[in-house]
Amino acid sequence: MDDIDALLEPEIPALRRYACALVRNDDAADDLVQDCLERALSRWYLRRRDGDLRAWLFTILRNLYISDFRRRRRRGPHVGLDDAAGLGINPAQEAQVETRDVLVALDQLSEEQKSVLLLVGVEDFSYEDAARILGVPLGTVMSRLARGRQRLRSLLENGRPTLLRRVK
Predict the structure, then answer these.
(1) Burial of 39 (0-12, 13-18, 19+ CB in 10 A)
(2) Angle, CA of 101, 116 and 118, to the nearest 5°
C-alpha cells in the first residue's frame, strides 16, 4: 500500500485543481477527488502498469464529474437558503469581478469545450494526453480547443457574460 500512496499522493493537488475548476465549489471538489481516489484504489488491479497514472486518474475524475453532472441535470438545480443569500453580493475588487466573468463565460461553453480548455489550459496536458483522457481523436481535441477559445474570447469581448442564451 505504501507504493500506491507514493504514486497517488503527488497527483492529488493537480486532481484538486481540476476538480475545483469543474465544480466551482471547494467542498464538492474535495468530495470529487476523494471519490476519484477511492475508485482508483478499489480498481487498482485494473490499471495498466505501462499506462500513464496521471491520465488514468484524470479520466476517472472526469467520468465521475460527468456522471454527477448528468444526475444533477436530471434532478434540476438545488439552491440552499445559505447559498441564495450570497447570490446578490457583488465582489468589491475588480479582479474578482473579472474572474467571475471568466468563470461565468466558461460555464456557458459546452462540456466538451470546457473539459478540453481546462485540461490543456489549466492542467497543462499535451493535446495527445487530453485526447487519451477524453477518449477522442487528437483532431477533435484541437478543434474543440480552438472553438472553445474563440467562444470564450467572444463572450468576454462582448461585455459581461450573461446567463441567458440567445434563441433563434
Answers:
(1) middle
(2) 50
User: Exposed, middle or buried by CB within 10 Å (0-12, 13-18, 19+), for 35?
Assistant: middle
Give me 145's grid cell: 480547443
Domains in the chain: ranges and CATH:
1-83 (1.10.1740), 90-161 (1.10.10.10)
Residue type, 6: A
pLDDT tens per residue across span 64-76 = 999 988 887 787 7
C-alpha cell at 153: 474570447
Residue type, 106: L
For residue 86, pLDDT over 70 is answered with no
Could you give the CA distance from residue 124 to residue 120 in angstroms, rounded to a whole number?
A: 5
